[in-house]
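dumping this here so i dont lose it
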């Protein structure tokens, strides 16, 4: 918990310790932005007056770290699928992306292991880039601009985290200034619709990237849920086709010094699954931190033994 009696510096340190994965992503984005500012400063100071050397230097660098829309350019610069998602050109671009990343990243990590947010960030960024590239290569309206078009920014990755969090806990409420409490699912729906409508604006590529990030964020959680169900659930199909030796081993659960028969084993399995379902429902409602020590141990042992 953050102590609001602390100094501003101590409060920032407390937040960084509480959300290390989110903090690391923010730090990388801020570091890249700061490096670009120094580059522009160097370009400005080393160029003749009125030549806009700062912008010239920046444009040269962005050609090598921004993801291009033209596929031949992408083939020669495949690393841009990764580098572009850490680049923000303007301060407000950086500010709003990082605020959004912190807010939704913090909520996401209340319900999911910290490492998942790294995977989601990269998946969202790559999906956003591929959606941007696909749109520019299939829609005729972009034919005249595709060769020179690039995109940068963490927005697709942040959008993936936002939508993933909304799919994970759709009824989770946050308080917005001048609006009051609003559920995450309503925020997600609003921003997806807004991005679709804003494609007609001057930043069509960016909005296509946002949509790609949003789709990947939703799919990420759906796949996670399927994986959890397979690992913790009574997967009859898996047991049916399991190796016969393995199936016999599963029944060697001793009670009062003797192996369980099939009926006892199945009954115990159902009871265990009911406990797991109750724990997962509790996580969905109140977060992982609401679990008792016994419930955490049951969940850990169940996932470890699958």
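and the seq i came up w/
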């Amino acid at each position: 918990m953050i102590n609001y009696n602390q100094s501003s510096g101590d409060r920032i340190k407390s937040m960084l310790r509480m959300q290390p994965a989110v903090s690391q992503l923010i730090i990388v984005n801020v570091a890249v932005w700061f490096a670009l500012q120094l580059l522009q400063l160097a370009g400005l100071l080393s160029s003749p007056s009125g030549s806009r050397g700062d912008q010239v230097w920046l444009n040269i660098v962005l050609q090598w770290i921004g993801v291009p829309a033209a596929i031949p350019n992408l083939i020669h610069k495949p690393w841009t699928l990764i580098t572009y998602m850490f680049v923000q050109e303007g301060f407000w671009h950086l500010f709003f992306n990082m605020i959004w990343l912190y807010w939704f990243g913090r909520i996401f990590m209340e319900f999911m292991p910290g490492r998942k947010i790294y995977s989601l960030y990269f998946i969202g960024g790559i999906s956003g880039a591929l959606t941007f590239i696909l749109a520019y290569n299939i829609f005729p309206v972009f034919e005249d601009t595709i060769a020179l078009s690039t995109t940068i920014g963490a927005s697709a990755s942040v959008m993936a985290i936002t939508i993933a969090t909304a799919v994970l806990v759709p009824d989770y409420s946050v308080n917005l200034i001048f609006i009051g409490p609003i559920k995450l699912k309503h925020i997600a729906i609003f921003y997806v619709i807004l991005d679709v409508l804003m494609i007609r604006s001057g930043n069509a590529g960016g909005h296509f990237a946002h949509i790609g990030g949003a789709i990947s964020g939703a799919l990420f959680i759906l796949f996670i849920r399927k994986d959890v169900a397979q690992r913790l659930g009574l997967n009859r199909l898996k047991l049916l086709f399991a190796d016969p030796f393995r199936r016999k081993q599963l029944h060697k659960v001793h009670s009062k010094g003797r192996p369980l028969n099939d009926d006892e084993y199945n009954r115990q399995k159902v009871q265990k699954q009911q406990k797991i379902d109750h724990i997962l429902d509790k996580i969905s409602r109140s977060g992982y931190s609401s679990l008792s020590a016994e419930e955490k141990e049951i969940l850990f042992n169940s996932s470890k033994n699958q």
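The chain is about 70% helix and 5% strand.
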